[in-house]
C-alpha cells in the first residue's frame, strides 16, 4: 500500500512537471485520475523549479547585460520554460471573453487556434508590463533578498491553478481539462497552498529576510493571489459558466504580473 502510494506521488510530481514546464522529465506517466488529481499538489514545485531558473539567469544576465535587455531576455525565458502554455491561454481567453458574444460562441472562439486582436493586445500588454517591472527589479543589481522573489512568484500562480481547478466548475464537461482533472478535490488544493506557503517562507528566510518579514511577505502573496485569482475566476465563471484550461493559463499570467507589480512597488518604496 505504501509503495503503491509512493509510486503514485512520484508519477504525480512527474506529471506536474511535464504538464506545466518544458523541463525534460524522462518518465512514462500514466495520465489517469489518481495520478492527475495528486499532480495538482505539486504544481507549486513546478513553479519553484521554474522560478529557480529565472533567478539563476537573472543573476547571470545582471552581471553582463544592462537592465532592459536583461528584462526582455527574462520575459522570453519565462515564456519558453512553460512552452508558452499559459500565455496562449491568456490570448485565447481574451479573444473569447472580450468578444462579448454568447457563452457558447465565446467557448468556440477560445478553441479556435487562430489568434485575434484582443489576444494579441492582451499578450503585448502583459509582456510589456512584465518586462518593465523586471527592468526595474534589475536596475540596481540583483541581491539575493530581491532575486528570491523571482523564485516565489511562479509558486503562487501555479498553486492558485490547483485551487481554481478544485473550487470552480468546468465550462466544458466531459472534454479536455474536465476529463483529466475531474477527481481533484479541495484537499488537493489545500495541500498545494500549504506547500506554496512553506516553500515560500523557507526561500525568504534563506535569502536573508527575517522570519517576521518573511511572514509579512507571505501574507502579501496570499492576499494578492487570492484576490486577483478569486476575482478573475468568479468573473470568468459568470461569463463562461465554468473554467477551462485556457482560463487557468490566463489566471496564472495575471497573478504572476500582479505579484511582480506588488514586489517592485514595495522594493521601490524602501
UniProtKB/TrEMBL annotation:
Catalyzed reactions: alpha-ribazole 5'-phosphate + adenosylcob(III)inamide-GDP = adenosylcob(III)alamin 5'-phosphate + GMP + H(+); alpha-ribazole + adenosylcob(III)inamide-GDP = adenosylcob(III)alamin + GMP + H(+)
Keywords: Cell membrane, Cobalamin biosynthesis, Magnesium, Membrane, Transferase, Transmembrane, Transmembrane helix
Gene Ontology annotations of biological process type: cobalamin biosynthetic process
Entry GO CC: plasma membrane
The protein's required cofactors: Mg(2+)
Top-level enzyme category: transferase
Localization per record: Cell membrane
Segments passing through the bilayer: 39-61, 68-87, 115-135, 186-208, 215-236, 248-269
Pathway recorded for this protein: Cofactor biosynthesis; adenosylcobalamin biosynthesis; adenosylcobalamin from cob(II)yrinate a,c-diamide: step 7/7
Annotated membrane topology: Multi-pass membrane protein
Alphabetized GO MF terms: adenosylcobinamide-GDP ribazoletransferase activity; cobalamin 5'-phosphate synthase activity
Keyword Magnesium applies: yes
EC number: 2.7.8.26
InterPro entries: CobS
UniProt keyword Transcription, yes or no: no
HAMAP family the UniProt entry points to: CobS
Family, as annotated: Belongs to the CobS family.
Biological role stated in the UniProt entry: Joins adenosylcobinamide-GDP and alpha-ribazole to generate adenosylcobalamin (Ado-cobalamin). Also synthesizes adenosylcobalamin 5'-phosphate from adenosylcobinamide-GDP and alpha-ribazole 5'-phosphate.
PANTHER family, sorted: ADENOSYLCOBINAMIDE-GDP RIBAZOLETRANSFERASE
Name of the protein described by the UniProt record: Adenosylcobinamide-GDP ribazoletransferase
Organism, as annotated: Paenibacillus endophyticus
Amino acid at each position: 500500500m505504501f509503495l503503491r502510494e509512493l509510486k503514485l506521488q512520484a508519477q504525480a510530481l512527474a506529471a506536474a512537471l511535464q504538464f506545466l514546464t518544458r523541463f525534460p522529465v524522462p518518465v512514462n506517466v500514466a495520465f489517469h485520475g489518481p495520478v492527475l488529481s495528486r499532480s495538482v499538489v505539486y504544481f507549486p514545485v513546478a513553479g519553484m523549479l521554474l522560478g529557480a531558473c529565472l533567478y539563476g539567469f537573472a543573476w547571470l544576465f545582471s552581471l553582463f547585460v544592462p537592465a532592459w535587455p536583461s528584462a526582455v531576455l527574462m520575459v522570453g525565458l519565462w515564456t519558453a520554460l512553460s512552452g508558452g502554455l499559459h500565455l496562449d491561454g491568456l490570448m485565447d481567453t481574451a479573444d473569447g471573453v472580450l468578444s462579448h458574444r454568447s457563452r457558447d460562441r465565446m467557448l468556440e472562439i477560445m478553441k479556435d487556434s487562430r489568434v485575434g486582436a484582443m489576444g494579441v493586445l492582451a499578450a503585448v500588454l502583459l509582456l510589456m508590463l512584465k518586462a518593465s517591472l523586471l527592468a526595474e527589479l534589475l536596475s540596481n543589481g540583483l541581491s539575493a533578498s530581491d532575486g528570491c522573489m523571482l523564485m516565489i512568484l511562479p509558486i503562487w500562480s501555479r498553486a492558485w491553478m490547483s485551487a481554481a481547478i478544485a473550487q470552480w466548475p468546468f465550462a466544458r464537461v466531459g472534454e479536455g481539462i474536465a476529463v483529466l482533472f475531474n477527481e481533484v478535490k479541495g484537499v488537493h488544493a489545500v495541500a498545494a497552498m500549504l506547500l506554496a506557503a512553506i516553500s515560500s517562507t523557507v526561500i525568504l528566510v534563506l535569502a536573508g529576510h527575517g522570519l517576521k518579514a518573511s511572514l509579512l511577505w507571505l501574507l502579501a502573496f496570499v492576499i494578492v493571489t487570492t484576490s486577483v485569482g478569486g476575482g478573475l475566476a468568479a468573473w470568468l465563471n459568470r461569463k463562461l459558466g465554468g473554467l477551462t484550461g485556457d482560463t487557468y493559463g490566463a489566471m496564472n499570467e495575471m497573478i504572476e504580473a500582479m505579484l511582480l507589480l506588488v514586489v517592485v512597488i514595495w522594493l521601490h518604496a524602501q
